[in-house]
Amino acid sequence: MKATISEILLTEEAIRNRVLELGRQLDRDYDGPIKMICVLKGAVPFLADLMRAVTKPVFIDFLAVSSYGQSSESSGVVRLTKDLDESIEGEDVLIVEDIIDTGLTLQYLRQNMLARKPKSLKVAVLLDKVERRRVDVPVDYVGFTVPDRFLVGYGLDYAGHFRNLPYVAAIDLEEETHGES
Ligand code: PRP
Questions:
Q1: Which of 12, 19, 72, 155 could cross-link with 166 by S-S, CB 3.0 to 4.6 Å?
Q2: What was the pLDDT predicted at 177?
């Protein structure tokens, strides 16, 4: 499929301002250090900006998850493909995600993290595709509510492309035509 950017939904400036606001909110809400857990790969730009928007001490760790199958639809079965490097027991943990869609990934991650006995567990997502939700999962910090469109940029990809765009855009997909016309 050929992907073309059809519309910029969130400009670089809009994202920067919202992430700074979220950082100020985290500063108000937390007394001590925050352990931010970045869910690879899409949340990398959000984590990088959010952690620098906070003045309280921040520690970071990374994990990766995968839904089984090749489908872009979440299968509902999630597995860890990369675990955290360190224990989170007794820590104030914030899961940092780029987007929540069905909610299945976050539901799994919350259960998995809670079993490790953090002192507290909250969730920050940059983008909430609220109309796609299939399970009710608590989200504490939301950057933007977004429509049900195929979004790329600021970490989000289409087949690995577009993660480095500084803005969030919707794409159009069309069949590639092969052969001579
Ligand atoms: C995205 C996103 C979440 C998940 C949300 O990850 O980062 O982990 O999908 O979908 P859900 O709410 O329906 O479970 P993706 O599989 O695109 O991986 P990536 O971050 O490595 O691109």
A1: 12
A2: 76
